[in-house]
Write a structure and sequence with these properties.
alpha+beta; Heat Shock Protein 90; Ribosomal Protein S5, domain 2; Ribosomal Protein S8, Chain: A, domain 1; 8-stranded mixed beta sheet; 5-stranded mixed beta sheet; 22 strands; 35% helix
Length: 583
């Protein structure tokens, strides 16, 4: 027998499904794209078990007649293109003719559809790629397609899916992108019969963003528009204070298609430059309109990537556009500050600097700012010097100096020790929080003087509902008010930031860490520790620095923060003598 064989049709379809159907969100994407290509103005998405048990998409588009229904699940059958020339100027979202047969090969599918000029609709049932029923049926104009028991025929694929919460979150993000790209369409998303959001039709993109992310976010967005020859770029840029630790809020759309692009990401982050600290990413919603013949969308099975005919030109134009918009906003802010001057007190300057008493917080670090000049001129000494072991050398004298309001300098027997105050405090708090959660202890809270409201986006609200007991255990008191608005009445006592803003920041970072694979206990401890720890730029007194170092060196693993960055650097005196030519 020949070694080379033609694969059976069933295996071919399942191989194709492996390329197109990665997870439930991949199925939802293909179905919603079909609805939009069909001219739908209203789309309802229902999911169960994160899309594993059911994904149902109902639209009011043009529908299909019986002949089209019979062809729709054949491989490479499509109404979107008919020639090679069409492939080079794609106007529709779908065009491959692979999605429906791929989905049907790994699930159970039921389709009900009807066109406006037909008296009756058609119902079709498919199981593992084989048609089990097709007949006339009463139906509304449009299409309803239900995909159930995803990957039931390929259980090995099913094992790779994430938790229900994670898969649901991917679908929420997907529908959010569709709502931004096609705001003129209404969307209703439900999970386990619970409505996640119901977005009405609106031609106003800014209003749609407010509906999704809240009016507070909209107030911190920079709107811009740039047209250069045949390429148009427009959208919204978040001010630096909206930055996050993940890229989750960077959204690129090319001809209304949501895409990933290293070229566009590099241009965007380069334009922000030093406006953002290392490891932070902006919120950005960017739209590019370009003639379809100048962009190739046929480079990825899931149509998630594109290739521009002039990658460098697109990169440079986006960079200049974003940079110009940010610079314009910066100049405007400067002018406003000149008209309404604000007194800025630097903790590192002598003379008119003002000290303010702040609240107390745990881990032995009372907030009592000390001027940098005072730290150097009157070094703090303690009657019982710090003598914590750190791989051998001991700290013999408790003299502490703060450098750039960021680093703590001290001396051991034969070393210079430099401590990153944020990383060190983050490590201390992480251990404290992790221990409390592990032993099921509730972290003490501090009540807000006035409860504050926070508007969450759909993904954040869904995550809150799934993790509220854990968030309460670490010291937050949160309850729903209306819609996706929640009211925060208490925050963890370990933080100096007594406001609802802390809750949203911790929630955002918690989501990102959990999506990166951290278990929930570690993720919430990392997120809260990072947000509650002293920051670079915070002035610390001598006793504060001493208490921080004592707490750090009492830990089993003090050398790194929860994110893996070093907390301290040790420089032997022999190295200093070598550098100064003494040895």
């Amino acid at each position: 027998m020949p070694k080379i064989q033609i694969l059976p049709e069933e295996l071919i379809n399942q191989i194709a499904a492996g390329e197109v159907v990665e997870r439930p969100a991949s199925v939802a994407k293909e179905l919603v794209e079909n609805s939009l290509d069909a001219g739908a103005t209203g789309i309802e998405i229902e999911i169960r078990d994160g899309g594993r048990k059911l994904i149902r998409v109902v639209d009011n588009g043009c529908g299909m007649n019986r002949e089209d229904v019979q062809l729709a699940f054949s491989r490479h059958a499509t109404s979107k293109i008919s020639s090679l020339a069409d492939l080079h100027q794609i106007y529709s979202l779908g065009f491959r003719g692979e999605a429906l047969p791929s989905i049907a090969s790994v699930s159970r599918v039921e389709l009900v559809t009807k066109t406006a000029d037909e008296a009756a609709g058609t119902v079709l049932k498919i199981e593992a790629g084989q048609i089990s029923l097709i007949k006339d049926s009463p139906a509304n104009t449009g299409t309803s397609i239900s995909v159930s028991d995803l990957f039931y025929s390929t259980p090995a694929r099913r094992k790779f899916l994430k938790s229900q919460v994670t898969e649901t979150r991917h679908i929420i993000g997907l529908v959010t992108n569709f709502a931004l790209a096609f705001p003129e369409v209404s969307y209703r998303l439900t999970s386990e019969s619970r409505e996640i959001f119901h977005l009405k039709q609106s031609e106003n993109l800014k209003a749609k963003i407010a509906e999704l992310f809240g009016s507070e976010v909209v107030s911190k967005l920079i709107e811009f528009r740039q047209a250069e020859s045949i390429l148009q770029i427009y959208g919204f840029l978040g001010k630096p204070e909206l930055s996050k630790s993940s890229r989750s809020d960077i959204r690129f759309f090319v001809n209304q298609r949501s895409i990933n692009s290293r070229t566009l990401l590099h241009a965007l982050t380069s334009a922000y430059g030093e406006m953002l600290t290392k490891g932070r990413f902006p919120l950005a919603i960017l739209f590019l309109k370009i003639p379809p013949q100048l962009v190739d969308v046929n480079v990825h099975p899931q149509k998630l990537e594109v290739r521009f005919q002039d990658e460098r030109g697109v990169h440079d134009l986006l960079f200049r556009t974003v940079k110009k918009a940010l610079d314009r906003e910066f100049q405007s802010a400067v002018k406003k500050s000149v008209k309404s001057p604000v007194t800025y007190q630097s903790p590192g300057l002598s003379g008119s600097a003002v000290r303010e008493e702040g609240p107390q917080y745990r881990t032995g670090l009372p907030v009592q700012p000390l001027l940098l000049k005072e730290i150097f001129s009157t070094p703090q000494k303690d009657s019982s010097p710090v003598k914590k072991e750190l791989s051998g050398p001991a700290l013999e004298r408790a003299n502490f100096y703060q450098l750039f309001n960021t680093y703590i300098l001290t001396q051991t027997d034969d070393e210079l020790m430099i401590v990153d105050q944020h990383a060190a405090h983050e490590r201390v708090l992480y251990e404290e929080i992790w221990q409390s959660i592990s032993f099921e202890k509730k972290i003490s809270t501090q009540r807000l003087l006035f409860p504050e409201t926070v508007q969450l986006d759909p993904r954040e609200y869904d995550f809150l509902e799934s993790n509220q007991p854990l968030l309460e255990r670490v010291g937050f008191e949160v309850r729903s008010l209306s819609g996706r608005t929640v009211i925060v009445s208490a925050v963890p006592a370990i933080t100096r930031q007594g406001s609802a803003k802390l809750f949203k920041e911790v929630l955002e970072q918690f989501i990102g860490l959990e999506e990166d694979g951290q278990d929930k206990t570690s993720a919430i401890a990392s997120a809260l520790a990072c947000r509650a720890a002293v920051k670079s730029g915070d002035s610390l007194s001598g006793p504060e620095m001493q208490a921080l170092l004592q707490s750090l060196l009492s830990l089993k693993t003090p050398q790194v923060c929860p994110h893996g960055r070093p907390t301290l650097i040790r420089i032997p005196i022999s190295e200093l003598e070598r550098r100064f030519g003494r040895s």
